[in-house]
What we know:
It is a single chain. By secondary structure, the protein is of the alpha+beta class. The chain has one domain (24-138). Helix content is 15%, strand content 63%. It has 1 helix and 9 strands. The chain has one helix at residues 2-22; strands spanning 27-34, 36-43, 46-51, 54-65, 73-83, 89-93, 96-103, 106-119, 124-138. Strands 1, 2, 3, 4, 5, 6, 7, 8 and 9 form a 9-stranded antiparallel beta sheet that branches. The chain is elongated, with a radius of gyration of 16 Å. The N and C termini lie far apart (35 Å).
Amino acid sequence: MKKLIMSFICTLSLLTAATSANAANETKVGFGFDQGFGIAGQFNNLNGFVGNDGISGDYLLKQGIFTQKIPFNYYLGGGAFYKWHKDDVFGLRAPLGLTLPFAPQFDVFAQISPNIGYKEEKEELRFALSAAIGVRYAF
C-alpha cells in the first residue's frame, strides 16, 4: 500500500511539473456539487474535488474554446474517484465539461462523467454517469 501511495504522489508531481513548464500557472478554487457538496480546485490541467460524499481527481487531456462568439470553453479528461458515502466505491471516470467565464477571474463549470466503479464489499463493477456543477475563482 505504501508503494502505491508513493507511486501516485510521484506521478502526480511529474504531471504537475510537466504542465507547469508548458503553461502559465492558473489556480482556481471554489465550491460545487460533484461528490456531494464540497470544494473544487484546478491547478493548470489538474482538477480536484473533495466533498462530503467522496473525493475525485482528474487530468484534463484536452481544453479549448468553441469560437469567439460562443463564450463557453470545453474540456475532456480522465481521472479517478473514491466515494465513501453509503457504499465504498472507487473507480475511473472520464469527465466532459464546460466552463463559462462570467466575471473577471470567476467561472462556472458543469460536467458529466461516465465512470466505472468497483464496490469491494459486493465484488461488483458499476457503470454510471455522474454530473458536477460549481463556481471557481482564479488567482
